[in-house]
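Morning. Coffee machine broken again, so started the prediction first thing and wrote up yesterday's gels while waiting. Chain of 462 residues, entered below exactly as on the submission form.
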Amino acid sequence: MKYLLGIDQGTTQTTAVIVNERGEMVEKYSAQLPARFPQAGWVEQDPFDILRTVKEACAPLLDKYDIAAVGFDNQGETFILWDAETGQPVTPAIVWQDTRGESVCKALAPHVDSSGLRQKTGLLLDSYFSAPKLKWVFEHHPDIRQKAPDGRLKFGTTETWVLWSLTNGRLHVTDPSTASRTPLFDMNCLDWDEELLALFDVPRALLPDVKPSAGWIGDVDFGNGKPLPLHALLVDQQAALFGQACFHEGEMKCSFGTGSFLLMNIGNQPRLSSHGLLTTVGWNLDGLTVYALDGGIFVTGSAVQWLRDNLKAIPDPASSNDAAKRSSDQGVIVVPALQGLAAPHWRTDMRGAMFGLNRSTTSDDIVRATLDGIACRVYEVVTAMSQDAGQVPPHLKVDGGPSGNPYLMQRIADLLNLEVRVSAAMEATAIGIANLAGVSALGISLDDLARDWKAERIYTPQ
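Came back before lunch.
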């Protein structure tokens, strides 16, 4: 049997999985990826840590299986600048959560046609994305900016950096889904846009070649001296959409982790949101591009960690389920805006809040209200997507750690009046990118992948 290697280069860890031709995970390894926080709002990683975790996650799998193809997904908006000649980074990896680009966004806002920006990119002018932070680097490090125009520096998201490093500079590539998160890329014609490059002062010589999301890209040696064919590249959330077999227009998924990231397949034409969502490239396959509505919620698992670490309300995240069920006071409300409110509000100035406290309020009530607040945030984004799409999704597919919380999943099902289907494959992202590589390299059909998708548990509205 032929096998596929899927690499999910995420924010907190890199996970590598072996998937068989039926899309079933056979084995996986993960390597933890540290971050550093040099000052308020700054989030960085060591580029060599990213490279190391990819090698460590893949190493135990490389010689055990007959690997036909590799797929590689990435963090999306996290980027690195490095010296093209030496391969040495000139910046840390500046992570998607980093907010140092806010000053750039404020300075540019009076001069930007926000409607035109959305028409081209599907995005907002927000420091969440790469380009404002890249412009910040140039403004604060003129020596770096001076090297940018003549090809002495290279820009890349985490997969671009790793592939460059593993191929000694032979591959400097990304795919349309990743490029569409910069925002330097026109999602309509699938190319870097000269006006956007000028707006953010980015020389085109910095940028990688944009390859289709699926198709042979090149051979990569992941450390065992046996090069493997690379056949798929995606952003992690788009890989999860593919891994959840959301191949038809109107189907959607929510990946739970530190935050909640919801994507809905909207077909082969980009459509702008009227309800505070982003439009993004889903994937590019066989000459066709699938687009998605995108709604990010930045606080989910991190709110439960806050209950554990700051309030000492629970001993571990799993116990939040039992605590919520013990709560007797339904009047307590928590707005979990611990990092502002992202989609569909996009208010970085908002802060978390509690209401309805009284002398009898217990820690269980606050835990229950926090989980309810998370469920309400998911409800907001799904409702916005339904309004934009003009249709209610048939169900909501979910994956990630918090999808194992029965109270939270039932609450979401009740609020949405939809079935919530928990993926049997918890590593939906890594499996998704492996499956996309299998479609390219082995001719696996989308119909077969959709048929083989399984739910571990289904929550029906009560």
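The longest strand covers residues 288-297. Going to sketch it on the whiteboard this afternoon.
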